[in-house]
Amino acid sequence: MKIDVCYTPDLIHQYEVENKTVVVIDILRATSCMVAGLASGVQSITPVATVEECEALGAQGYIMAGERGGQKLPQFQLGNSPFEYMKPELRGKKIATTTTNGTQAIELSKKANEVVIGAFLNQKAVVNHLNKTKNDILLFCAGWQGKYNLEDSLFAGAICNALKNDAEFESDSALCALYLYQSMASDISYYISRSNHASRLTKFNVREDIEYCARVDEFNVLPKLKGAELVL
Ligand code: MLT
After folding, report:
1. In angstroms, what is the span from residue 134 Cα to ligand 1's centroid?
2. 163 CB less than 6 Å from ligand 1?
3. Cβ(104)–Cβ(9) under 8 Å?
4. Of the chain's two ends, which shows fewer C-beta atoms within 10 Å, N or C?
5. Which residues form the domain of 210?
6. What's the pLDDT tens digit per position in 53-111?
């Protein structure tokens, strides 16, 4: 089994996603929300690329969620906080979401053999699944508007670290992620709080989201794309 890391959607054209298990990673905050929501009883989450697609699903009865630039859209019921996704009234409900980076990365992964959702919140569940898969693996970081980000790369490194004895690193991207993680593993929460997107989010008063998204193994669930929907 081979493993590689794509650090931003702007680099995905250099990778083949077909026949692979793609793990989409957007720690702050899209994939953390997906894990928290589905683990808390949300029936399904449909990720879409545009606000218009989300509104079309809203007209069909979906709860509309997401953000642009980190901020909730006024016409949506939910923003992009894991705490909003864990509300008891969302149990059994279908959510449609569009976000600046995370749902774009999912869109670009759709030709993969399978697409799963990774976050620190479900790290062990991701590793357990990857240990069983027969596919080669691509860890796909959503980044920020096409650029590299720390928190997604750090999580990619955590997965590379967990699989380093069983998987062959396909390129130096995986090796760099491994070394990054190994140099920061002692205090993940601190290093995430130093990231560019954490500063951006702090201005919107969502410090608790940043701390929550850095928690490891809160949930033993693995969201997986089935058709257009993420389900457990
Ligand atoms: C994204 O998809 O870009 C993020 O989840 C942005 C955010 O923190 O809301």
Report:
1. 31
2. no
3. yes
4. N
5. 2-225
6. 999 999 999 999 999 989 999 999 999 999 999 999 999 999 999 999 999 999 999 99
Closest residue by Cα to atom 7, ligand 1, is 70
205 pLDDT exceeds 90?
Answer: no
Ligand 1 pocket member 99 (CB < 6 A): yes
**pLDDT tens column, 122-146:** 999 999 999 999 999 999 999 999 9
* 34/231 Cα distance (integer angstroms): 9
Structure-derived torsion over alpha carbons of residues 197, 203, 206, 208, reported in degrees to the nearest 10: 80
- The rounded Å distance from CA 228 to ligand 1 centre is 20
pTM above 0.85, yes or no: yes
**For the domain that residue 10 is a member of, what is the CATH number?**
3.90.1560.10
Q: Does residue 231 fall inside a structural domain?
A: no
Closest by CA to 95, choosing from 117, 64, 72, 74, is: 64
Instruction: Judge whether 230 lies within some domain.
Output: no
How many structural domains comprise the chain? 1
Residue 207 forms part of a structural domain: yes
